[in-house]
Design goal:
Blueprint (H helix, E strand, L loop, with lengths): L9 E6 L3 H12 L5 E6 L2 H8 L13 E4 L8 H10 L8 E5 L4 H9 L4 E4 L4 H18 L8
Parallel strand pairs: 1-2, 1-3, 3-4, 4-5
Helix pairs in contact: 1-5, 2-3
Length: 150
């Protein structure tokens, strides 16, 4: 467990177009040990509007962590990752790739674009829950996340 005291909940942006995966991820994090606020973007364009605080997202807090699927409508996760990591403010936000893609090229490309980790989504429900809990255990309990000045 981390040695510092967390004052506010962790803000998480989940970028996922599969409603079942969204619901399940939200449930696992809601039942978790760490207080968090999870926002959801259903496609890559919406994710970037959220992150750049444009339009209806002008007042949102910058997320502490992004969970990003690669295969998204409108703008795929590969492009979203590249845009996040090329932005002077957003590049400090840890991005966890959470995807069904097992393609070695996706793994190489996302790490070359500075993804913080690459996790394949298990098809099995129990394993999916285990993976999401392990993300919470590691990224929300152990890792010290950067405080992004807004």
């Amino acid at each position: 467990m981390s040695s510092y005291k967390r004052i506010r909940p962790i803000n998480i942006l989940l970028v996922e177009d599969n409603p079942a995966d969204v619901r399940l991820t939200q449930e696992v994090f809601k039942d978790g040990k760490i207080r968090n606020n999870m926002s959801v973007a259903m496609d890559g364009e919406e994710a970037m509007l959220y992150l750049l605080k444009k339009g209806k997202y002008a007042e949102v807090q910058t997320p502490d962590l992004v969970l990003l699927d690669l295969n998204l409508p409108k703008k795929d996760g590969r492009t979203v990752l590249a845009e996040i990591k090329s932005d002077d403010l957003l590049k400090f936000i840890p991005v966890i790739i959470l995807t069904t893609s097992a393609a070695e090229q996706d793994i190489l490309n996302t790490y070359s674009n500075h993804a913080n980790c690459y996790i394949m989504k298990p098809v099995d429900l129990g394993q999916f829950i285990t993976v999401v809990r392990s993300i919470e255990d590691f990224w929300l309990s152990i890792v010290r996340l950067p405080k992004i000045e807004e």
